[in-house]
Amino acid sequence: MKPADLSPAHFLWLVESLCLLLQPPHSPDHAAAALQELGLEAKPKSVKPTQLHRQAFPLLVWWNGRVPALPGAAPAGGAADGAAEAGATPAVGLQASPEQLVMVFPGDTEPRVVPLEAATAHLQRSVWLVSTQDKPV
Questions:
Q1: Model confidence at 79: pLDDT above 60
Q2: What values do phi and psi take at 11, rounded to 5?
Q3: Burial classification of residue 106, based on how many CB atoms lie within 10 Å of its CB (0-12 exposed, 13-18 middle, 19 or more buried)
Q4: How far is it, in rounded angstroms, from Cα 74 to Cα 80?
Q5: What residues does 129 pair with on adjacent strands?
Q6: What is the DSSP string of 24-85?
Q7: Residue 99 burial (CB < 10 Å; 0-12/13-18/19+)?
Q8: In this predicted model, what pLDDT tens digit does every residue of 12-45 receive, in sequence order?
Q9: What's the pLDDT tens digit per position in 100-112?
Q10: pTM, whole model, 2 decimals?
Q11: What backbone phi and psi angles, to 5 degrees, belong to 119?
């Protein structure tokens, strides 16, 4: 008997739990392949931070160094709240203007606004443009 469809929360819990338990490979290539299996396409593109506002959103960006703490919050030690982690931290860019970025970092429960001037030194030029896959009819 086939299990019933999973709710989004149950799906995410299932994938996260198995990844934590079994420790499969974790690389950008594996993430892109997993997104493709879910019907999403992640196209890498080189973009200067000052040109992010001209891109289609959402997009995945890579943040080097310490992730900025949320305004008004003391760093809690998590990767998305002022702590530094080895390697680049992925973040989802939701929108941008020439002056600021609206982003979500791992662990965030709400988007944060990051001034572009402060972000420029931390953002890699490599971004992933994320969209649904075009399926032939």
A1: no
A2: -60, -50
A3: middle
A4: 12
A5: 43, 59
A6: ----HHHHHHHHHHTTEEEEEEE--GGGGGGS-SSEEEEE-SPPPPPTT----SSTTTT---
A7: exposed
A8: 898 889 888 888 777 888 888 888 888 888 889 9
A9: 999 999 989 899 9
A10: 0.76
A11: -80, -25
